[in-house]
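Q&A log
Question type: sequence-to-structure
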Amino acid sequence: MVAAMAGFALEDSLVKIAARGLPPGEVLLLLGLGGSCVFALLARRDGTVLLSADVLSRTLCVRAIFEVIARLFYFLAVALTPLSSATAIMQATPVLVVLGASVFFGERVGWRRWCAVATGLVGVLIVLRPTATDFSPFSLLAVLGMIGFAGRDLASRAAPASFGIHRLGFLGFLAIALAGLLYTLWEGLIQGATVFAIPDGPALAAIAGATGVGVLAYAALMRSLRTGEITAVAPFRFTRIFFGVGAGVLFFDERLDAVMLTGCAIVLAAGLLVAWDVRSPRPESD
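Response status: OK
Response body:
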């Protein structure tokens, strides 16, 4: 999970760079097609069948819907808002995952994890600053992306055991391509014409890098979700805040104020509370 979070933070940075010279929908479309091709090649090497009737199962359809929502709205948040802000808001994802695991999978969630849920949401509200004069409505895009990622993670856990990392990765990146195509068509309806740009060298390099890093990060994420207790691995998503905020400061010259740092600290505390609860021994009667 930690490796996945580092990879996704780097992928976000490269995608943000690519979006400077290409339409957002085109960036998502190219990223999705590239990643799906890589996973298809890996699946073929292992003799894995990618497409079968169970691809249309309810669980995988729900997973695809959440993947499209997550990638589309979070990508727009990364492109239109500071990377550090979008990353901080994303840190509420593990809180929602823990909550969903208790509801849908019956995993035990004690009072400390419920406190973490409330604490994490407070931290996100501080980062959003809904009543401040500098509140950006675009920050809500990251909130929608966060909800999408939480749903995707839970659906990935519920996917049939026959679906390995390569199949899930292939379908996941196809959903990214679908998100890009839908956004391009929607933008075309507004502008009266669908516009694609010819990528220049830096944009192609950024997309290629994002694809490579994204594939590795996605594989690591699916491995953690499919092999560990979801309430145990989800808190390690909070490590993304260090990678994402660090990338924003180093690569995009973003500045962090006291309010942002306070919100990040509260969200991080929520994750540590969940991690502590996971590792704490429980009495037999609990």
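Response note: Residues 165 and 234 are 18 Å apart (CA to CA).
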